[in-house]
Amino acid sequence: MSDTTPKHDEAEPVRSGLARRTPTQRRSRERFERILASAMEILSEKGSDAFRMSDIVERTGISFGSLYQYFPDKTAIIGTLSERYNAEGRACVEQELASVETLPELHAALGRIVEGYYRMFVDEPILCDIWHATQTDKDLQKADEAEMRHLAQLLLARMKELAPSADEAELRRTAELVMVLIAAAVRHAITLERSEGERVVAQFKALLSRSLPGLPG
């Protein structure tokens, strides 16, 4: 049987830097998932710098033609994997911020967000390889920056509700800075031995709980 995607397979539109298409038919979807599973294995074994599209073909037996129907290059594969994990993190942030009604509750929610991201990286070591790849590719860097802005917007919306009279520009800068610092702290913590990484996370959470500039205490 020919290993090609059915011509009439409907697909969800996907933005630039990710897969060409996200198939909806079962057989095509299985092939799509097999490609991504193989990519994760290769990233874990070789790292993003040595990862090649030919590795996917050799490991899965999927033809180059079928592979390129879904992914134009390895950036699109890594970007798709990154977006999946970003979606998990985004859902965590949305859930934690949804019920916040006071500044102490916001501090506590941010602490849980820090802990949640750290646990994601600890439980899924492949995230380190994906993150490294996003920092060495301009398109993936832009996607990472866009995700950070989106998370900052989620935080900003909650902060504006808590402090409606505060200067919006200052709140925006605060929201962006907080999200950038969370990402930096977590990415630093995962480079350390587990016990030291947990101490760094705990200390950073304490810093967040003591003060949020730009909001009335």
Automatic annotation (TrEMBL):
Residues 1-13 have a biased composition (Basic and acidic residues). Residues 1-27 are annotated as: Disordered. The keyword Iron-sulfur does not apply. The keyword Magnesium does not apply. Residues 29-89 form the HTH tetR-type domain. It holds the Pfam family TetR_C_22. PROSITE patterns: HTH_TETR_2 (PS50977). It comes from the Bacteria. Residues 52-71 bind DNA. Keywords: DNA-binding. This is TetR/AcrR family transcriptional regulator. It comes from Fodinicurvata halophila. The lineage of its organism: Bacteria, Pseudomonadati, Pseudomonadota, Alphaproteobacteria, Rhodospirillales.
